[in-house]
UniProtKB/TrEMBL annotation:
Mediates influx of magnesium ions. Alternates between open and closed states. Activated by low cytoplasmic Mg(2+) levels. Inactive when cytoplasmic Mg(2+) levels are high. The keyword Ribonucleoprotein does not apply. The keyword Ion transport applies. It comes from the Bacteria. The gene is corA. It catalyses: Mg(2+)(in) = Mg(2+)(out). It is a multi-pass membrane protein. It comes from Gluconobacter kanchanaburiensis NBRC 103587. The chain crosses the membrane at residues 264-284, 296-317. Its main location: membrane. It is found in: Cell inner membrane; Membrane. One of its GO terms (cellular component) is plasma membrane. This is Magnesium transport protein CorA. The lineage of its organism: Bacteria, Pseudomonadati, Pseudomonadota, Alphaproteobacteria, Acetobacterales. Gene3D superfamilies: CorA soluble domain-like, Magnesium transport protein CorA, transmembrane region.
Length: 325
């Protein structure tokens, strides 16, 4: 999709009847090769393809060619049960901003709505202003993602460390497995968010040199956005540490559950050895067993087997392997 977003008017798909002479913002969403070629013809400059936007070296993500600035960064997109990171690109000329993206993003939509509601009589904003406004909205959205991630980790923490966790031991293993899955998702989301923040930070640094002729207010907005990114990076680092802490705690609880299971097997094995031994001794087919003709031999052997069960159970109880002392 190849949209033009003029001030004071809704976004429209480009076509023969659309005047692009005064348009400042051109928005390519999941563009086809024909749409990219059309944008290149309109601008007279190269438009990066997806494989170019996915390059990870800094020289590919931020460079200038014949006065045209090419910027790109991965941007996280949170969905219901997962998160994905897709590249976005900005082509910045003296008069125009071209955005290239492969998914709908809330920040772009918000700026697009504000662009449509602008007072057209006041003229179009500059390309630099539009770019900074988009970055500000993206930062706000990333902040919302981190806030939601923080609430999720708080809920996981309460679930893992709650006092009544063992009241339903049958579901403990299922809960711990689900916790590991959620923590894995949280770790992926935090990592993707950090990549997005680092990419945006580099973009702000790169465009800072081009705003010397822009109003002081715009330069101030860039500095504020940089400080916001720094604070979100700190929050993201804290979030990653909390994910690691909860992961270690969950694995520790899994180890405890496994040890408890081994304790049960140990107790069962221990209390079964002595009765089996006694039954084996008195079940031998020898004629000269002293208790063979004894009137109380049978209840005696049963009492010995019962005692051989009770004594180990009492010993394990004293050691605190089960029950409460």
């Amino acid at each position: 999709m190849f949209l033009v977003r003029p001030a004071g008017a809704p976004a429209r798909e480009t076509g023969p009847d659309v005047d692009l002479s005064k348009a400042v913002w051109l928005d390519l969403i999941n563009p086809t090769s024909d749409e990219i070629a059309r944008a290149e013809k309109i601008l007279g400059t190269h438009i990066p393809r997806r494989d170019e936007l996915e390059e990870i070296e800094s020289s590919s993500r931020h460079h200038e060619d014949n006065g045209v600035l090419y910027l790109s960064t991965p941007l996280v997109r949170r969905e219901e049960d997962t998160a994905i990171s897709l590249p976005i690109g900005f082509v910045l000329t003296d008069r125009r901003l071209v955005t290239v993206r492969y998914a709908d993003y809330y920040g772009f939509d918000m700026v697009g709505r504000r662009q449509a509601e602008r007072d057209a009589t006041k003229g179009e904003p500059s390309a630099n202003e539009l770019l900074v406004e988009i970055i500000e909205e993206i930062i706000n959205r990333l902040a919302d993602i981190l806030e939601g991630l923080g609430r999720t980790l708080d809920a996981i923490s309460k679930q893992v460390f709650r006092a009544n966790r063992r009241r339903n031991p049958a579901r403990t293993g299922e809960m711990l497995r689900e916790t590991l899955r959620r923590l894995g998702h949280a770790g992926d989301l935090a990592s993707m968010t950090r990549d997005s923040l680092l990419g945006l930070d580099r973009i702000l640094i790169y465009i800072g040199d081009r705003t010397e002729k822009d109003p002081q207010a715009l330069r101030t907005r860039i500095k504020v956005a940089g400080r916001d990114i720094a604070s979100l990076n700190d929050f993201d680092a804290q979030t990653v540490n909390k994910v690691q802490f909860l992961l270690d705690a969950t694995l520790g609880f899994i180890s405890i559950e496994q040890n408890d299971g081994m304790k049960v097997l140990t107790v069962v094995s221990a209390i079964g050895i002595l009765p089996t031994l006694i039954a084996g001794i008195y079940g031998m087919n020898f004629h000269d067993i002293p208790e063979l003709a004894w009137k109380y031999g049978y209840p005696y052997s049963l009492a010995m087997m019962a005692l051989s069960v009770v004594l180990p159970l009492f010993w394990f109880w004293r050691r605190g392997w089960f029950g409460a002392r």
